[in-house]
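Researcher: I'd like a candidate sequence for this fold, 70 residues long. If you have to choose between options at a position, lean toward the conservative one.
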């Protein structure tokens, strides 16, 4: 993934979701670069932001991912 390519640890359950807390600047930069390249639609990093994977923080993580994508 682009997160892995940029040095963010994405191994293990929920790691991509935890990247929202661990590397918000990297996520925001990825979104910005896609937008600068002309992308008109950006996906938020909500993959694995569910209660079964990240516990009770799922809603906070999903909301933060959407904010970073904006």
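Model: Candidate sequence:
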């Amino acid at each position: 993934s682009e997160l892995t390519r940029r040095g963010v640890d994405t191994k293990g359950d929920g790691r991509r979701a935890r990247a929202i807390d661990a590397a918000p600047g990297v996520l925001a930069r990825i979104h910005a670069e896609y937008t600068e390249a002309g992308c008109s639609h950006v996906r938020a990093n909500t993959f694995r932001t569910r209660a079964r994977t990240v516990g009770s923080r799922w809603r906070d993580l999903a909301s933060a991912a959407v904010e970073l994508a904006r």
